[in-house]
Amino acid sequence: MIDRRNWQNATELLEDGDEIAYIGAKKSDNGVMRYVKRVENLVSRGNCIVFIGDGQGSVGYSLYQPVDFIGSTTLIVGYNEHLNPYNAAFLVSVLDLERFRYSFGRKYKKEVVANTKIQLPAIKLDNGDYTPDWKYMEDFVKDQIIPQLPKKAQKVWLQKYDIKPQKQEAIKLNTDEWEWFRYDKIFDIKKGKRLTQADMVDGNIRYIGAIDSNNGLSALIGNNEHLHPANTISVSYNGSIGYAFYQEKEFWATDDVNVLYPKFTLNKYIALFLCSLIEKEQYRFCYGRKWDLETMKASKIKLPAIKKMVDGKEVVEPDWQFMEDYIKSLPYSKNLEPSKPNEVVDELVEMKKEMIKMRRAMEAQQSGSITNFGTVNIYEK
């Protein structure tokens, strides 16, 4: 069943809050734009697949929404009584293979979605028709994908992750007491280096590009020149402008990425705080106004601040300890603690490898190389 709620004036009616997610035409963060107060007549129930019908760079992508949400006008919602998180992961992977058919000029409209056909594992009925094999899809994800994921990712799928904060005391933000700091006062900023696909060599070094997902990881390469060190922040200034990611290992950054070298002691907690604030500046930039190196150096960021006396003078500095403590006070922050020695894995690299395997499997299935597939319309009740 295809549904499109009356979200026409949603953005005007919504107030910031923590009651329900507002989902938009965004392929990263599972489409979450922000959290808002609940407006009942705008809510769509969860356990559904959301199709992004419009939006430059995101049209044609699909997302599984497990819980209720409010959506933008660019979304179409698909329901099926057999849907669950496992077969939904399978479906989304197959559906996303169709996104090349759509663009800003050819939108993924409701009637297009309703009439789209995809190849899925199927059971042949006595009358010759096919029905989706929902159990096969669920078992495929449970038995073949989840066991190969890093341990932390497995905990998410098995719902064994820790919801507790590292610090029990809640900390509130009061931006009225924050201060503005120039980027070049707290960071050394360096531009990435261009690397053509023809010059790439296979390897295990992260290649960080101007993308809005996967921590910026767009490839794994063997080229080991022009590498940036770990414990830095990458910010794209072209393409997906303004997306910021903390890099825990050395990497090659493309020439569409600026790399922020801290002039202070950085850790993952402070980095998460900073990345969230950096991404708030995205609206200031676009294809015609890039956040290039010189512009970023002169840009300012508003941060929690602390006053100190230095040589008899009052000096205002960022309050790095407050930022770290705030992140540690948030729910789920226990999951940010370092892994035990026997659990240390390269999360991003391992996840990337498994997703590549799954994508190839999906492509093989789409090409009809698996015989138990039939063409079905999954949206018919």
Would you give an account of this structure?
- A hairpin with an 8-residue loop joins strand 13 and strand 14 (217-221).
- This protein is of the alpha+beta class and 381 residues long.
- The termini are close together.
- The chain is globular.
- Mean pLDDT is 81; it is low at 340-349 and 368-381.
- It has helices spanning 10-13, 85-95, 110-115, 134-145, 151-157, 183-186, 268-279, 293-298, 320-328, 347-366; strands spanning 2-3, 16-23, 32-36, 43-44, 48-52, 62-65, 69-71, 75-78, 118-124, 130-132, 179-182, 187-191, 202-208, 217-221, 232-236, 244-247, 251-253, 257-262, 300-303, 305-310, 313-318, 373-376.
- The strands form 7 sheets. Strands 1-8-5-6 form a 4-stranded antiparallel sheet. It has a 4-stranded mixed sheet with strand order 3-2-7-4, with no helix packed on it.
Determine the number of helices (DSSP H or I, runs of at least 4 residues): 10
Strand content: 25-35%
* Percentage of residues assigned to helices: 10-25%
Instruction: State the secondary-structure class.
Output: alpha+beta
Alpha-carbon distance between the two ends = 6 Å
**Extended strand count:** 22
Cα-atom radius of gyration:
23 Å
Strand count, sense and barrel status of the largest sheet are: 4 strands, antiparallel
Shape designation? globular
Q: Catalogue the unreliable spans.
A: 340-349, 368-381
CATH class of the largest domain: Alpha Beta
Mean pLDDT, all residues? 81
Task: Give the SSE map.
Blueprint lengths: L1 E2 L6 H4 L2 E8 L8 E5 L6 E2 L3 E5 L9 E4 L3 E3 L3 E4 L6 H11 L14 H6 L2 E7 L5 E3 L1 H12 L5 H7 L21 E4 H4 E5 L10 E7 L8 E5 L10 E5 L7 E4 L3 E3 L3 E6 L5 H12 L13 H6 L1 E4 L1 E6 L2 E6 L1 H9 L18 H20 L6 E4 L5
Parallel strand pairs: 2-7, 13-17
Antiparallel strand pairs: 1-8, 2-3, 4-7, 5-6, 5-8, 9-10, 9-22, 11-19, 12-18, 13-14, 15-16, 15-18, 20-21
Helix pairs in contact: 2-4, 7-9
